[in-house]
Structure formats: structure tokens, C-alpha cells
Amino acid sequence: MTATTATTAETGAAAAIEIHGLHKSFGDVEVLRGIDFTVAPGEVVCVIGPSGSGKSTLLRCVNLLEEPTRGTVTVGGVDMTDPDIDLDAVRRRIGMVFQQFNLFPHLSVLENLTIAQRRVLGRGKEEAGRIARENLVKVGLADREDSFPAQLSGGQQQRVAIARALSMAPELMLFDEPTSALDPELVGDVLAVMRTLADEGMTMMVVTHEMGFARDVADRVVFMDDGQVVEQGSPEDVLTRPQHARTRAFLARVLNPGAAQPED
Fold first, then answer.
1. pLDDT band for position 88 (50/70/90)?
2. What are the E-state strand segments in 7-162?
3. Which residues have a Cβ under 8 Å from the Cβ of 42 and sit 6 or more positions away?
4. Could you give the CA distance from residue 37 to residue 239 in angstroms, rounded to a whole number?
5. Is the pTM of this model over 0.70?
6. Residue 143 Cα distances to 133, 135, 147, 149, 153, angstroms
7. Edge-to-edge strand ranges of the sheet holding 17-26
8. What is the dihedral angle through the alpha carbons of 147, 149, 153, 158, rounded to the nearest 10 degrees?
9. Of 6, 71, 143, 208, which alpha carbon lies 20 to 30 A from 110's?
């Protein structure tokens, strides 16, 4: 198979993610209605929008956890929608962190981080353990490798989930509202880990309701509503000077939930 190669206008390099004409329907309900945008290598893109706008479905289409109804999704120069693709091989290049932690409850933290390395990547026990421990240091949990998920807080479990994804040496990371299931006091530690990844140059696509994180960390903010990209640009432009009425109404609700809402 000859991979379809995507390029960024700025560098001519292969795009980390390139999406063209993406549609996704569940039965008669069209959830994504023609999505187009590109994520450059090293870029952090935060996708925001109201519940039901299609954000999580979009993210799941990137690594084909959901199969697009039509359109193309290209990751690192490879067309994910090509029926002849080795999907498992491409997915190994993509780390994904979900709202729920999805840790194996009967395995220790270290075992949770090494099982996929050994079974999927074929790493030996010693190498997998070394890589796992390096990533536990990165997420601030070096002292919890022998703990089981039930012995950890929700924030700690999510940091383990991030370390597990990093242990597979992904080229890009997808985050699907990684703090939405956490108590407010636990959110900061998870976001701090994500900030560190961004500072290190990790390509990241983040579906989030954390506007402060989007403002501080994102290179670009994408606002979605009703299955479409309504507006995108720098955090300053989208969050401070939104051009569309739908963006302004959404931000008014999330940033000032008790205030009277402006009319469209």
C-alpha cells in the first residue's frame, strides 16, 4: 500500500493529523457534519464545545475507534480510512487517554504499564519495566508502582493511564476530557502532567472543558457545535475575541455560569 501523505502549509512536513470532509452518523443521526482541519507536528490543539457537539466522536474517529461514514483521516501521512491499512500498526503510534481510566484492577500499577509493552511491542520484562518506571517518574508516581488501582485516587489513576500511554512511545496523544471524571481538587495534578508533555513538544489533541488549560497550553483552540467546526484560532482569538455568536454564547455559559446570557 502506498500511504497518502498529508503536508502542512508551513513546513511541508507530514501533518500529525489531517481531516477532510469527515462525516459520522449513528443511524439517522448525523453527529459529525463535514469536519476539516489539520494538526501539525508538535502542536497542541484543544477542542471545546457543548455536550453533544461531536467532540469525542471526532477524537475517536482519529484512531478509528469510530469508523467515519465518509471523509478521510490521515495520521502521520497514513490514511486511516484506507481499507488495506494495518490499523494496529498505526494505532501503536497514537496514545489515547479516556474520561475513565480503564486500568486493569487486578494488576499493579507497574503491571498496567508493562503488559501492552510486552504483548504488543514485544519488549522484554526488564526493558518494559525500565520504561514504565521512567514514565511513572514523569507523572509523579514513582512510589506507587506496586499499588493497585483501587488504592489510588482518581487523579492518580488518570496519571497512571497517561504514563501507560507514554510507555508505548506514541508520536501523538489524544485526550478525551481526561479530567471530567475527577473531583475538582484532583484536576490540577493531571493538567500539570499534560502541560509538561506540551512543553516537551508532544503533539496533542485534547477534548476539554478546562478553559484555563486551553488558554495557557493550546497552540490552537477549535470550537465545535452541532457536529461542525464553528471557529478556530489562537486561544487569545477564540476565547477572548470570538467571532461567532455560538462561540460567544458557549463561553458566556462556561465562564460566567451565573450571569445572564446574551441574545444571539
1. confident
2. 17-26, 29-39, 44-48, 70-75, 78-79, 94-97
3. 16, 201, 202, 203
4. 19
5. yes
6. 10, 12, 9, 14, 14
7. 29-39, 17-26, 70-75, 78-79
8. 110
9. 208
Q: Does residue 120 come out as left (phi exceeding 0), alpha (psi in the -120 to 50 range) or beta? A: alpha
The one-letter amino acid at 210: E
Cell of 172: 501523538
Segment 146-173 mean pLDDT: 95
Give the pLDDT band of residue 156 (cuts 50, 70, 90).
very high
H-only helix segments in 139-183: 154-166
Q: What is the pLDDT of residues 197-230, one digit of tens each?
A: 999 999 999 999 999 999 999 999 999 999 999 9
Residue whose grid cell is 510486552: 118
Q: Contact at 8 Å (CB) between 227 and 53?
A: yes
